[in-house]
Amino acid sequence: MKAFFISTCLLIASFYSFSQENVTYQKPPQEILTLADYQRAPGVSMDSKKEYMLLTYRNTYKNLEDLSQEEMRLGGLRINPVTNISSTITYANNLKIGTIKNKSETQVLGLPDNPKIANISWSPNEKYIAFTHTTSQGVTLWYIDVATAKATKLSKVFLNANMGNPISWYKDSKALLVTTLATNPPALINSKEALPKGPIVSESEGKVSQNRTYQDLLKNKADEANFVTLATSKVDKIDLNGNRTPFSKTSGLFSDVSFSPDGNYVMITSIEKPFSYLVPYYRFPQITVVYDINGNEIKTVNEVPLNEISPKGFMSTRTGKRNMAWRSDVPATLYFVEALDGGDQANEVPFRDEVFLWEAPFTNAPQSLLKVQQRFAGIQWGNNTTAILSDYWYDTRNSKTYLINPSVEGAEPKLIWDRNYQDKYSDPGNFETKKNAFGNYVLTIENNKMFLLGDGFTKEGQFPFIDELDIKTLKTNRIYTSKLTDKKEDLLSIEDSKKGDVLVMLQSKNEYPNYYFRNLKTKKITPITTFKNPFESLNNVYKEVITYKRNDGVTLSGTLYLPATYDRNKKDQKLPLLIWAYPEEFKDKNSAGQTTQNPNDFTFPYYGSFVYWVTRGYAVLDDASFPIIGEGTTEPNDTFIPQLVANAKAAIDAVDNLGYINRKKVAVGGHSYGAFMTANLLTHSDLFACGIARSGAYNRTLTPFGFQSEQRNYWDVPEVYNTMSPFMNASKMKTPLLLVHGEADNNPGTFTLQTERYFQALKGLGAPVRMVLLPKESHGYVAEENIFHLLWEQDQFLEKYLKN
Known about the structure:
mainly beta; 8-stranded mixed sheet; 5-stranded antiparallel sheet; about 35% strand; disordered N terminus
């Protein structure tokens, strides 16, 4: 790991006495550093036949140098204008090919020096793997021959990855379609130096709209020009010999490229003008055109106007064709959806959405498939007579799943499930899929049966399962239930239903998650990977999922950790307690009281929790349940504060009743909405000695058109927005608070300004508060220097205000 310069002129005892400090980067205590400074296991990607796997290696953290590259923030994108790829992308730095049967690993030869690998993509025939490598000048195209584990550079031109993944495989696996940089693009404009030619003017036409508070939007004409320069690309064909031929006759702001299942058509979507200063690029005007395999234009299949006007409510949507994609089980047919309620959820109609099919070459009009009562949620294609469709409605948390026959126009869908999608205990699982002749994943159908793989959460614990669904009777038959008590088993895929071979992942509290083949008939387990536990210093830590009741009878839960040296039998020492949580909204008490926590989950400490501190003598209640419930016509946020406090009191009471803690020494913490929770708990209760709030929003008038799961705007319920805003109640907050925020937060609503203004209010009102802004960090933190320093800040804060 990269060594940090650690200042020796700061005395820890007086550290928090200064109002403004010139702090250099610090490292946390050794107990925490041992856990934080580890080597990440590789990512695993297997071919569909489970013959080969790609092992992808990357650094555990980025560093400040990675975060200090050139960056332009345009239309919701963060772009490196020199290399023409996202400035936030995470690169792999090594690749290996593993043979699953022989359990061997081979280093990929011929990789570029100092690899910066991204956009990894298996070819349709799974003999090759394409990837991009970013140099100091731009993005280059490479591929791996899987059998020989040899990498080869393909492109002599630089790709344009500013709009996302720039590569798509031809169906014959002999070439790739790529977006490349436009020829002789205009120079970028320095918007800070460019003299304006006039004011920036925006105008409303008097139509009601409800948009989120997006970040990184276009702000002026210079931004518009730079967006065009950086997003404009050409589409080229590059074969595996490196030969390049133009595909598109013109350049454009291409945002999506996709092949039809048979490979004879290519659908390309481009961004058009006029642009907007209110919404991100994906709500700019768009045109979608289908071409034949030689680049000849066949049909403009969709034109979407600028989408700045959005009706109120999460179930509202835009008008026109949406969700357009290729149907995966036939050669070349598009499907799309259109709203039947004008896109406004307030309009009462018998059907909300209509689903259409449109067969290439699109000389005939689209064919209506069916109408759905709620908002369309997706289709899983199987074959000509079988598909699964689902719809949902947020306000009621209802989801319906149907069996449909896609060959019959207007055929009545057969209802399979009608359920509350927040009800974890009734979740039927996910349908198993397999690759078809087109290389697309479709529903696995055998002898008129489909298969479901479920997480298996119950009141008694977690028991993953496999069900058969009979297509004729729509009844399920359970063919396997995992009954492991010392391990957690995740069912990933059915490899051979007749033989009973299933791909699973096994883990335990101290065993790192690894892949295995399980045979359901013989019970034999065959390991595929053998990744080691990098956190062995936690092996003797006590871990338990505890359940307890809130004052209104709602069942809550959390994962409790106790130090390895703590004697649970004597309980002669009362520990300080750390609670880490994140509020969730529910429409009923039953769903709110369900738990998905498993004591056999591998204990994986990371900066987003308090688990590190169990090595420092603290008890930790991680992922504590903080449900906010609004039944019937009542919205959850109408009683947000009292429910928040009730959740916290129940958690403290539960651990206190076990005899482990000093309830006068309890801290609470959270990230994002959890930070918002933390500030409110310190403001409206006396349960905590201190709190840590990271990257939160504290003034809800700055997110006036909704936040989190709140659909109503500020002018609908000003009392809710004001009551829930810690900033509005800053005069009540007297408990020590550590505020942390990324200097370059990119999350809608959680502008860094939220923390800065809240800190200024608390400081001016005399509250004990410390603010730490992490340089270059977005909403999630990635740089090693910042993460290690964050852990040090939190440790110093807790040692002063909680333990001592």
